[in-house]
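Suppose you are handed a protein chain with no further information: no name, no annotation, nothing but its sequence. What can you learn? This example shows the usual starting point.
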Amino acid sequence: MRSILEFGPYCLFARTHPYETTRFSSLEPGGDFRGLVEAELDLRRLADLRRLLAGRRWDLIACHAPLRPLSRWSLRALAYRRLLRSAGSPLIGLDFNDGKALTPTALALLARATLYFKRELPLDQAALLPEGTPEQRAALASHRHKLRPLSLGLAPWRIADLPGVPTAKSADLFFAGTVRRDDPLRRDGIAQLRRLADEGLAVDLAEQRLDRAPYLARMAAAWMTWSPAGRGWQCFRHFEALAAGSVPLVNRPDIAMAAPLQPGEHCLVYEPGGEGLSQAVRAALADKPRLARIAAAGRDLVLRHHLHRPVADGILAAALP
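A reasonable first move is to predict its three-dimensional structure. Written in structure tokens, the prediction is:
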């Protein structure tokens, strides 16, 4: 049986391969601790980490990039430095963060890792270091060949409340989410959806947070789900919509993606600006059998490639050939 040490703010292998994985959390605010008991990160825990690294050779160390830049002498920064100085065990970087840019610690992780899997891997790789120093840019140039796209993936609890049988459609389009004043993509999109509703289209809008069960039920009852980018282009809604049998209508991606959602095959894409969203909705609703085919193909893609278990298995296959 493999031995995996997983470190950082997120959790993947400890859930998908629990008998093979030792988890050591960095306890960063905003991290993924759902359903797990976490110990406080203190000097005693740093000593525990040192013993874990010195006491055995791990088949794989999976290190999640920090959510944000770390204060140089914080306990988290010391823990990352200890991990990156370890020798003898292969190490990979995992970056599930919203942003495209690499923090200094993430860049150091890229340099140490054999492979670095990044959720928001920009097509324009200048976005990885938009304000980088010449030394940082040189380091990125030396190690960019290690970069691999990473699916955000769905944990089992995210689809646990899906309807058991296909749902009859009662809405043309569904959207649930908050709209910030500084988010023109969503603000302009909501305005277009309201105009479509005024034209007579069945638009189901919920501009507040919904509980999981009604959220998935209303999504499943819609032919399409508007799924604009949030802080990152990948978002859970893309995959949740397909798992529920609704076609995600997304703005054109600006990232590379693992097992990508192909436009016209697993999703529909619109161009922001002008009336691009409205035009895409009207065109799509003119061929509902096509929407049903896209939803079915997209659901199959999600279940095969974008649940946490296949995401983790794909990473292991690449890292431990």
